[in-house]
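User: I'm writing a short methods note and want a consistent example. For Acyl-CoA dehydrogenase family protein, I'll paste the sequence; you return only the structure tokens, no commentary, since I'll be parsing the reply automatically.
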Amino acid sequence: MDLDLPAEAIELQKLCQDFADKEIEPYAESWSEEERFPSDVFLKMGELDLTGLLIPHEYGGTDAGYVSYVAAMEAIGAADQSFAAAWNAHSTIASLPLAVFGTEEQKKNWLTPLASGKKIGAFGLTEPTAGSDAAGIRTTARQDAGGWLVNGAKMFITNAGTDVSLGVTVLAVTGINDDGSKRFGTFFVPTGTDGYTVGRPLRKLGWHGMDTRELIFDNCWIPSENLIGDEGNGLRQFLDVLDGGRISVAALGLSLAQEALNLASVHATQREQFGRRLADFQAVQHKLADMATEVEAARSLVYRAAWLADSGRPFGKEAAMAKLYASEVANRAASASVQIHGGYGYVRESKISRFYADAKVLEIGEGTSEIQRNVIARYVTRSVRA
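Assistant:
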């Protein structure tokens, strides 16, 4: 069993590390304090072919695969979680529906500028009254004058309000089946479309440098060719690409946990109390040991899910496990790291305080920990029945 990263993944990780050291790390604190998404830095990522790692070459991507993507996320996420999360949303749930279900014309018009990094993408699922209950969305799309009329609202949407936002892919109810169940469709709504309004930036506990907004659709008309995939199958399409998104959020959690450990280790070896380094106290040593062990366990789960995805094998259960464990490890590691830092970890000038605030949402976004446990349990009981 070879657990080493392939050469191409190592090369990509090195490229991302160099980029993060130069373009992200020195400015991340100011982006957070200003609550500003650095769109210029995102465009620079596009120039390095880092904005379409999961998209085929013919549509502007590099088709690097999930293992390489996780390796890249380890480098970007360690520098700044806000920027990495925005890049992640763009690379997965904003781009994959078009890549998997879009027509050739849709891929040319929308996927190519996203994958090449000329524009950033957004996906609109969550609503003021629907999140974990994806089927409970109320935004509607009905056929009208050769197109679709969209009405409703989306909440907590990433990347829709930047100066380089191309548009948003939204899930909407398109009708009711004979058995009373809802029909769903997935639609692309370009930025600037009449009836589509982007709300003010939301002020969040963490991820301050990421653009997050409410979106309003008020008799927003889009042409029929903006329907992605099959009408009536929109929810299924979203769930089909969600497993890949879970791997990417797990990778984000892994990057945070590893950096929290790194920061704690450095502080423990430099800070002295009672005439000794913190690292010489057994209580601190045990915290570092527990963090290191959990980080390695999370890494194994995340890369296994990524390897399965790249191998074309089923990976839904493993993606849910990786997302669940890595997100919860990230929270435990961030908390332990702040504890080791003491007062230095509680001031906003410290990197670990920013990561501590960023960690919580990893247990919420793209499927809460409770939802992940439900998904895993279904897989487990299904295999028993089989």
